[in-house]
Amino acid sequence: MYSPSQTGASGIGGNSEMANGREDAATSCGQRGGHDLDLTADSLGYCLKRAQVRAYEVLASYVDQESISPARMTALSMIAVHSGVSQSALGKALGINRASVVKVIDALESKNLVERRATEGDRRSYSLALTASGLSELRSLQEKVRQYEQAIATNLSADERRQLMDLLEKVATNRVEKGDDEAELD
């Protein structure tokens, strides 16, 4: 049977740094842990997840996520920039499936933020456009998002922020599949 003492941890409620709510070196991003079972040590995925969780916590302090979720906010912005975009093109740009994009658009449409317009020559396809309310909502979000962006980049210089964004884009666009050991990476 597993025992916390077998791994050197004091366990939940024990006297470890983690149990007291503080992080130890093994849970910090980029740190090499001293334990062979520490899956978080030197883990890019773990660092990305920690950053994502923190970014969402900060975003929630600037944007009322009861009124609009980050995914819907992104969709609203993309529709504004690419007025007339089709639902399928929006889904592809967002990286979500057809059913999910329909749910996002349904939610935005129910709040009168976007409208579907029949596409000429194809009655099965719709183009998307912001309503006046959608434009107003997006404009009010602009300042909140600007403040949020400043907050999450507080500890970064402008060059570091740009470098981080460039590196994250490389990670996000990496298309290597499991077992594809010889794939070329850009």
Name of the top-level CATH class of the domain at 43-160: Mainly Alpha
Q: Write down how many β-strands occur, each being a DSSP E stretch of 2 or more residues.
A: 2
End-to-end C-alpha gap: 46 Å
Mean pLDDT: 81
Strand content: 5-15%
Q: What secondary-structure arrangement, pairings included, does this model have?
A:
Blueprint: H1 44-62, H2 70-81, H3 87-94, H4 98-110, E1 114-119, E2 122-130, H5 132-152, H6 158-172
Antiparallel strand pairs: 1-2
Helix pairs in contact: 1-5, 2-4, 2-5, 3-4
Account of the protein in words:
With 186 residues, the protein is mainly alpha-helical. The protein has a domain of 118 residues: Orthogonal Bundle (Arc Repressor Mutant, subunit A), CATH 1.10.10.10. The protein has six helices and two strands. It has a two-stranded antiparallel sheet. It is globular. The N and C termini lie far apart (46 Å).
